[in-house]
Amino acid sequence: MSARTTATKQKLFDAALKLVGERGAASVTVDEIAAEAGVAKGTIYYNFASKDALVEALLRHGVEILAGRLRSAEEAENSLEALVDEMLGFWAEYPAFGQLLVSELWRTPGQWHGTLSLLRDDIVSIVRGQMKRLSDAGRLPEGVEVGTASAALFGTLLVIALDWQVFQPERSRAQVRDSVMHLVRGLGQAR
């Protein structure tokens, strides 16, 4: 893919994300996305077959960015705290993506449910790796399963990040991260 094509797609992603975050995917038109991006309507159809294809590509693009950040957290000394911090940082940088993900992920049945299920599984599998390491070290509380802990942490961070962005924007990322870490400290205790 050429640099120009990549830049155009990023411009379309940014415009679509802004509009979709404000009003939801169903309420946004191709004309509005093109106008927001400052491109001709045909540019969208040249790069994507439809608005739906653009939204699906946007979802995949956002999850790729988030997954990359979470994978980098795996190398940190305190990888659980780094994972929490990276996820909060992503939601702070892309709050409209969080809104899109929440609105579409739990809409049943949603238009992008199949894609979102796969994307959710990608992210949760990274979190699951962290939970598995804690479990192997005997640091998960008795009776807590790795899969449950993974989904719970992902869901908790998504909802807390949205709550932070909408209702408590005056709080710093570090304050929110520290609060989350207080919630999950039990994960660091020996059985």
Structure characteristics:
Arc Repressor Mutant, subunit A, mainly alpha, 191 residues, 9 helices, elongated
What does this molecule look like?
It is built from 9 helices and no strands. The chain has helices at 3-23, 30-37, 41-47, 51-73, 79-93, 95-105, 113-136, 146-167, 173-184. It is an all-alpha fold and 191 residues long. It is elongated. It is 75% helix and 0% strand. It has 2 domains: 1-48, Arc Repressor Mutant, subunit A (Orthogonal Bundle); 51-189, Tetracycline Repressor, domain 2 (Orthogonal Bundle), CATH 1.10.357. Residues 6-66 form the HTH tetR-type domain. This is TetR family transcriptional regulator.
- Low-pLDDT ranges: none
CATH superfamily of the largest domain: Tetracycline Repressor, domain 2
Rounded mean pLDDT is 88
Tally of distinct domains: 2
Structural shape: elongated
Distance from N terminus to C terminus (CA atoms, Å) equals 51 Å
- Which structural class best describes the helix and strand composition? mainly alpha
Share of helix, binned: over 70%
Number of strands: 0
Largest sheet: none
CATH architecture of the largest domain: Orthogonal Bundle
DNA-binding region: 29-48
Pfam family, one: TetR_N
Keywords: DNA-binding
GO molecular function: DNA-binding transcription factor activity; transcription cis-regulatory region binding
What is the topology?
Elements: H1 3-23, H2 30-37, H3 41-47, H4 51-73, H5 79-93, H6 95-105, H7 113-136, H8 146-167, H9 173-184
Quick take:
Keywords: DNA-binding. This protein is mainly α and 191 residues long. Helix content is 75%, strand content 0%.
